[in-house]
Design goal:
CATH superfamily: Spore Coat Polysaccharide Biosynthesis Protein SpsA, Chain A
Distance between the termini: 65 Å
Number of helices: 15
Strand content: 5-15%
Structural class: alpha/beta
Radius of gyration: 24 Å
Helix content: 55-70%
Number of domains: 1
CATH topology: Spore Coat Polysaccharide Biosynthesis Protein SpsA, Chain A
Strand order of the largest sheet: 3-2-1-4-7-6-8-5
Largest sheet: 8 strands, mixed
Oligomer: single chain
Length: 427
């Protein structure tokens, strides 16, 4: 038995234990919270909320999908307003926003359109244009193509009020009907259901997503508004952590349409990865004693990717060696000595195969029992292909490191070719 096989088995066994531990933690309650029925309920309902929906190159149906969820909220319509933020030159989106505005007002929602002048720059710049104009003490942010349940707004406000949180996030699942869309959904399940849970319980910083983001207006103003970075949500989360503000996680989710194709997805990931590199650079420069707690939130996915990619490579190598051993075993009697020599290795290879397979089985279980709207064994089976998906995403990570400039751009989503506004007006 070679030293390499012993070291490999040790690594894979340790990796498998980590994934089992993460899954066990994810089954426990605590990281994501629901407000109790008696927790300051009346006080929570007194907060006015300003919902900001930045729009750029959006189809009318994508806009209507989000505003339909907003209009269904059970939170008192006297206590929230909606701002549809549109770029000046984006006339197609403006027409869709005007229809959405009419729809919201017909449902008794206080809504308006704000036109951003001066040319396109970033989502953060668009959001910052309206901060001093909104009337809510809490600001919520959603994107086009978001859908969420009718209690999310009320529960977010109540949880912030009862627990004293300055900012709040939810799970964000991205889904598409094709193979890529299913891979993206599984990827978000792993991040929000497994890794975020583990980080939160271990006391580490957890980055918030830009959809379903709630933050007190006064806190946002103290931070100078939304940071104009490639990943403004991750950077804002880091600023909140550095300044000691309290961050909560609501046990609720937003489902968003996945990117349209692999090109759109890789471009989106390049922007995200470069944005996370900006966060890591800030941590290294200004992090002081909080460097470890802050950085783990951005390094966790990298560790997970490395573990799973190595696991699947090991599985393929193990199967190859087993097949070669079988060839020797089925050979002539002259090969009996070789077969006997390989016998200890055969047992070891089986152990390696099981250790490499276990993390994938853990992910399959997580997907089958995820907290989002899509689940079941048919989706879970796709988990066996997730390491290949992550290998592809690692290309985006390499590009993010070495590309000289990464611009903010519009991510084309699958719904751009599926959703029609007429289908959603019936809602």
């Amino acid at each position: 038995m070679s030293l390499e096989m012993v070291l490999l088995s040790t690594y894979l066994g340790f990796s498998a234990l980590i994934w089992v531990a993460i899954y066990s933690v994810s089954r426990e309650r605590g990281s994501y919270e629901k407000p109790s029925q008696t927790s300051n309920e009346h006080s929570g309902r007194q907060h006015r909320v300003s919902i900001l929906v930045p729009l750029y190159m959006e189809k009318p149906g994508s806009i209507m999908k989000t505003v339909s969820s907003i209009a269904k909220q059970r939170y008192s319509k006297d206590l929230y307003e909606v701002w549809l933020i549109v770029e000046e030159e984006d006339q197609e989106t403006l027409r869709g926003a005007e229809k959405a505005l009419e729809f919201l007002r017909s449902r008794g929602v206080d809504a308006r359109i704000y036109i951003v002048k001066g040319g396109r720059s970033s989502k953060a710049r668009a959001l910052n244009q309206v901060i001093d104009r909104v009337s809510g003490s809490i600001i919520a942010v959603y994107d086009a193509d978001d859908s969420f349940d009718e209690n999310q707004l009320e529960e977010a406000v109540r949880l912030m009020s009862s627990r004293g949180y300055d900012a709040l996030g939810v799970r964000v699942y991205r889904y598409g009907e094709g193979v890529l869309g299913k891979m993206i959904y599984i990827d978000t399940v792993i991040w929000f259901d497994l890794i975020i849970n583990a980080l939160r319980k271990a006391g580490f910083h957890v980055p918030l997503s830009g959809e379903g983001l709630y933050i007190k207006k006064e806190v946002l103003e103290r931070l100078g508004g939304f940071p104009e970075k490639l990943a403004e949500d991750a950077y804002l989360s880091l600023l909140l952590f550095e300044k000691g503000y309290r961050i909560g996680l609501l046990d609720s989710y937003v489902e968003e349409a996945a990117p349209l194709d692999i090109t759109s997805h890789i471009r989106q990931r390049i922007r995200w990865y470069r944005g996370h590199l900006e966060c890591l650079a800030r941590i290294l420069i200004y992090g002081s004693r909080k460097r470890l707690k802050a950085s783990i939130g951005y390094l966790g996915p990298i560790v997970a990717v490395t573990s799973l990619v190595l696991s699947v490579i090991t599985i393929l190598m193990t199967m190859s060696y087993i097949a070669r051993g079988s060839t020797h075993d089925s050979g002539s009697s002259a090969n009996n000595g070789i077969t006997n020599t390989l016998a200890p290795y055969g047992s070891m290879l089986i152990v390696l195969f099981i250790e490499g397979l276990l993390p994938l089985l853990v992910i399959m279980l997580a997907v089958a029992n995820n907290k989002g709207p899509r689940r079941g064994i048919d989706l879970a089976i796709h988990a066996f292909a997730i390491p290949l998906y992550w290998i592809l995403m690692s290309v985006a990570a390499v590009l993010a490191i070495f590309m000289r400039k990464v611009d903010w751009y519009k991510t084309r989503r699958a719904s751009d070719h599926m959703i029609q506004s007429s289908e959603l007006y019936s809602l």
